[in-house]
Amino acid sequence: TEFNLEAKLLSNDLLGQTVDKIADKRLVVVPDGKLALLPLSALPAPNSDEPLISHHEIVYEPSASLLNILAKLQNPKHIPTKDLLIFADPVFADNDNRLITKADKQASFPTFPGLNLRDFRLVDENGRIPRLFATQDEADSIVKVVGASNAVIATGFSANRERVLNSNISDYRVLHFATHGLVDVKRPEISSIVLSQFDENGNKQEGFLRLQDIYALDLATDLVVLSACQSGVGKEIKGEGLMSLNNAFLQAGAKSVLSSAWKVDDTATAELMKNFYVNLSEKGVPPSDALRQAQISMLKSNQFKSPFYWAAFTVQGEFRQPISFGKSYFYYYFVLISILLGGLIFLGYRKLKRT
Fold first, then answer.
1. 183-239 per-position pLDDT tens digit
2. What is the pLDDT of residues 263-300, one digit of tens each?
3. CA dihedral 188, 190, 195, 198 (to 10 degrees)
4. How far apart are CA 142 and CA 43, in angstroms?
């Protein structure tokens, strides 16, 4: 196909001269310009038909100045004690059946046939934002993987802006947003994560978590997952990288962020995220490697093998630290202290024995 031909030519231009030097190595990419919007995982390996992710773990890093900020955040004053907080399946429109009274339950409401993308701009003829049904399945499947005792789901009306701003989200090591994304490259300040637009009583409320809201957060989070459309896209600022949702979370204190470069399919994304958390939880690998293995699983499937379904997602930030569920930092401190105390006791016993 045309894509395969163009992808092979681009891969050879970008990496062809380094093919011997990068063999079986992790690729850490600090992109410039439009390359920031090109996930290398969509390309084949140089001079090959095999995908690049078959041989390489690929990590994206922001600008040098943001890297300096990230380095200072490696030892946060606040240590999260909880595992995972998921925001999923918000209430976007006044025709959502979660807002319908008993008398109105027989009413019919429009459906959204065909490809359902996690893109705010895909509204119906009445200007309503479509519900993302697969995000609830995504949240449920993630909880099954990591364990119900290790996760909290804020879904429906609870998936709201106030829950993000006024709750202790800094207590969680992983934050997951499965919803629509609104990205405006020309006016990045209005880029948002779209959350519930109505409360339980049907009252309209502010439902956009905007860029300035994210910058104001005080996080000590290991990982933020932006399971939404174009969450890694933003306005390019020379010398500073992209002004985007994922960079906002990094500057707010997150060590790493998983985001997307284009409009992603609802069902395929739910499947990718389930595989991602399986690798993260059961295999104990860092986020970048967990994503790579999840993308390879999608590549091998018949339904989602096209790069369109899985290649949009990349990881930025810290790529060496595994994410574990069910064990707080205090657990590791306890183990470390126990080992040190054990060593001191052993040395004291040997010294006493010699005496």
1. 877 887 888 999 999 999 999 999 999 999 999 998 989 999 998 876 666 555 555
2. 888 889 989 999 999 999 988 899 999 999 999 999 99
3. -170
4. 28
Cβ–Cβ < 8 Å for 260, 253: no
pLDDT digits (tens, 9 = 90+) for 311-323: 889 898 887 888 8
Cα–Cα distance between 341 and 243 in angstroms, integer?
A: 47
For residue 347, what are the contacts with CB-CB under 8 A and spacing of at least 6? none
Rounded CA separation 108/121 (Å) = 23
> What are 12's two structure tokens?
């050879």
Q: How far apart are CA 239 and CA 234, in angstroms?
A: 14
pTM attached to this predicted model: 0.80
**Nearest alpha carbon to residue 265 among 227, 232, 234, 294:** 227
User: Are the CB atoms for 86 and 178 separated by under 8 Å?
Assistant: yes
Residue with tokens 């190595």: 25
Place of tokens 């998921």: 86
Name the phi and psi angles at 182, rounded to 5: -115, 115
Q: Look at residue 36 and give its three-state secondary structure.
A: helix
Residue 202 near residue 93, CB atoms below 8 Å:
no
